[in-house]
Amino acid sequence: MPNRARPSRFFPATPARALAAAAVLLAASTELRAADSAPMAPSWRGFDGLTLGLLEQAEVWGGLGGGRRRGVTANGLLTLTVEGDLGKLAGLQDWSFYVSALQIHGRGPTQNLVGNVQTVSNIEASRATKLYNAWIAPSFFDGRVQMRIGQAGANDEMMISRQAQLFLNSSFGFPALLATNLPSGGPNYPIAGVMARAIVKLDDRFSIMTAVFNGDPAGPGPGDPQLRDRNGIAFRVNDHRLVFNEVWFAPDGGSGGAALPGLWKIGAWAHTGDFQDQRFDAAGAPLALGGPARRLRGNHAVYAVADQMLWRKPGTQDEGLGVWGLAMASPADRNVVSAFLEGGVTFKGAFDRPDDVAGLAFAYMRVSDAARGFYRDGAAAGAGLVPAAPYELALEATYLHKASSQFTIQPSLQYVVNPGARLPASPNRFSQAPLRNATVLGVRTSYAF
């Protein structure tokens, strides 16, 4: 489990001074958008066929009220990327490779200020220097079959919406349902997993994607899974499997013509490992009374993703209004979180700035009936438990300003209802003490060298 929050030695822990500290950091810091997000601006080029990139992300967050405490935190992420065209480098036409390494630093707002399940920042993590992506990608039949083999995160392609990548809360990149229920939190930043993926393009509008990951990227053990694979080189291959399957539909056929662009997905994931019943023990008695949990074989979820532009500014290609959403459901008996829903609206080209993007979004995770039943049973039996909250809800408003081809500034205001949902099993919580609804304000700056 990550370290408990500690008072900051660098910033005064009062909300009034938090904004002043934010202004100072904003003026002095450089930062990136998110781990392995599309680079904003030029990468270094070594020689023909090889591209190097270096991106620094820095954030400052102020807890304005509610949650665990008021105060200020600062965190950041340095990402080094190496991308190669193996056709130019080694004569392997339509083959490429990609490697990324991370240096994670600072203290994030989730554990230290808010105490919620849906991590406030998608770059905050346990401090480490580690390998993340390392894969090779052959392409066949004029790009209609695209493979990827190596190590990656499931949130690089699966379950994602293009518009959702604007937002800073981590649930908009990797749903809290998976992060809470899967071993080690699943193959997701900052823990990638060994994998193989194939995309088959059936025609201009329909594609099929399937991917197989090792089911426990950090491996079993006590404590924080991010520290069990501190350097990102566990390369585990002998655990159970996590399988994704998706069908993609692009209404405009990717033509860039008059039709408004969009991408719709229907998918499912399945894990072949064993999971614990959340309410009953092996004998069918309430688990809260102390018996060993009943073991259940496998886990799964079904989901749908919609990402659609609704209005395009005349004379532009991608400026305008868009909406997106994701819905996911999984069995209640073996999962702490059984349903997840998120969505939002974005507007690109705000204030006549073609690269600026504004957005509003929500992420709702529902605690399963079985998990809530466990805490009700424990409370009724006098076992020192209190009933869990039925859900946690995160709301975010953000604005991405592209100051130059290399530098962006992005404030984010988030409001969290039922932080942590009184679930002590969350890596960001240490007791069932109820937390007041929390407000947190942050600023991210991004610089691509």
Keywords:
Porin, mainly beta, 17 strands, disordered N terminus, 16-stranded antiparallel barrel, 449 residues
What does the model show?
The chain is mainly β. The protein has one domain: Carbohydrate-selective porin OprB (Porin, Beta Barrel), CATH 2.40.160. The protein has 6 helices and 17 strands. A 16-stranded antiparallel β-barrel has the order 2-3-4-5-6-7-8-9-10-11-12-13-14-15-16-17.
List the helices and strands and how they pair.
Layout: H1 15-28, E1 44-45, E2 50-67, E3 71-85, H2 86-90, E4 95-106, H3 109-114, E5 128-140, E6 145-152, H4 176-181, E7 193-201, E8 206-214, H5 225-228, E9 241-249, E10 262-281, E11 293-312, E12 320-329, E13 337-348, E14 357-367, H6 369-380, E15 391-402, E16 407-417, E17 436-448
Antiparallel strand pairs: 1-2, 2-3, 2-17, 3-4, 4-5, 5-6, 6-7, 7-8, 8-9, 9-10, 10-11, 11-12, 12-13, 13-14, 14-15, 15-16, 16-17
Write a compact overview of the structure shown:
It contains six helices and 17 strands. The chain is mainly β. The radius of gyration is 22 Å and the shape is globular.
- The sequence of SSEs as H and E is HEEEHEHEEHEEHEEEEEEHEEE
The name CATH uses for the topology is Porin
N- and C-termini, Cα separation: 34 Å
Low-confidence stretches: 1-43
Strand content: over 45%
Question: Which CATH class?
Answer: Mainly Beta
Let me know the largest β-sheet. Answer: 16 strands, antiparallel, barrel
User: For the largest beta sheet, what order do the strands appear in spatially?
Assistant: 2-3-4-5-6-7-8-9-10-11-12-13-14-15-16-17
The CATH H-level homologous superfamily: Carbohydrate-selective porin OprB
